[in-house]
Amino acid sequence: MGIAHMHQRTASETAYQTALAQFDRAAQYVSARADYLEFLKYPKREMAVNFPVKMDNGTVEMFTGYRVHHNTALGATKGGIRYAATVNLDEVRALAMWMTWKCALAGLPYGGAKGGVVVEPKNYSPSEIERLTRRYATEMIVMFDPRGDIPAPDMGTNAQTMAWIMDTYSMTVGHSVPAVVTGKPIDLGGSQGRNEATGHGTIIAMVEALSRQGSHNPQETRLVIQGFGNVGTFAALYAAHLGYQIVAVSDITGGVYKASGLSIPEIFAFAQRGSALNEYRDQDVDFVTNDELLALPCEVLIPAAMEGQLTDRTAPHVKAKLVVEGANGPTTPEADDILQDLGVIVVPDVLANAGGVIVSYFEWVQGLQAFFWDKDEVFRRLERLMRQSYDRVALTAEEKKITLRTAAQVAAIQRVADATATRGIYP
User: Fold this and answer.
1) E-strand spans in 88-241?
2) In the chain, what is the straight-line distance between the N-terminal and C-terminal CA atoms, in Å?
3) Per-residue pLDDT tens for 188-223?
4) Which of 328, 184, 345, 327 shows the shortest CA–CA distance to 336?
5) How far apart are CA 261 and CA 282, in angstroms?
6) Bridge partner list, 117
7) Nearest Cα to Cα of residue 88 among 318, 307, 243
8) Set 41, 78, 114, 184: catalytic member
9) Domains of the chain (ranges plus CATH)?
10) Is 44 a catalytic residue?
11) Residue 13 has what pLDDT?
């Protein structure tokens, strides 16, 4: 049975089908045996667990959780844990596969993994989420390992979630193991700069892309950012710090648009109070839906929310000349073709949003050594690795006359394929 038939197809394209379609586009440019390339499509191992959690009122609810290890040719698997009502095995498979390419492209000694629990966190109390997290971690103890599989935060999880997982793992093995997760609070061995890393790295990739198109004036470069969670927030703050004009931002409720530029520190402070952007009030601000946001006039569009936002329906209306993917998988293959026809350059997710996993790697290294760096050191090293990755992708794109997305996948897949060939097939 082929890999495409490992799951039942639905009417709409799944994230995993997108990941496979992207792989197939790139694989034709990779110098590797066809059977090894086929092997790289398959997740190495998948685990699904169903577990009970006691609610505050004494009742018990059942939850389903997943963890997928995609590939281990380059080292331990690395990837976030997502808490969302939409989590399913297909999505986790896709995200694990993308993590493999992201880590390989960044030159990290990691393969890709991803995990998730089917839950809407806001419907539960902090103590219920803690019990759910600890039970999930206990069920996944056979998957997690500081030398084998290192989780991190993702949508719906945060530093506190990682602290509970680290504590649960440590209590089970009988000694403290800070390196079993990344994205931890600083006082438990977290890294300086980890919160800002993905958004920060996205803007480094954007600046690199703009610079390669010729000189540009940040004050005259309009940015639209979809998503005001961890990635979008810190991307907006760093871009504003560098002098770029951010004309629109959005969250799940919709967005705010101001042609002359928004005050990002003001909106950040507003969002920090737990307010939704559709409640933001300011003169000269227009409210837009997330679909309308994608079509606003701007030089740079940064989708930093959910996957599958730029589709054959929304892509034809994009006005930006540069799309920098802060989110994972925000552009479908059909939308990629449309954007290419429109002359839009797309800096792909595996390159643009690798800042998070790069700084996670720094945190892991610091944890194993029990020796910590300051924020300047973290950002200096982050910038160097992001620029090296961009160079690698740009060179591959130029050599093979392909898009940056395909080039990023080619460079990453080539590295994993080479490692696989060198290691050989066991036994």
Assistant:
1) 110-118, 149-153, 222-226
2) 23
3) 999 999 989 999 999 999 999 999 998 899 999 999
4) 345
5) 12
6) 65, 83
7) 307
8) 114
9) 44-176 (3.40.50.10860), 197-342 (3.40.50.720)
10) no
11) 64
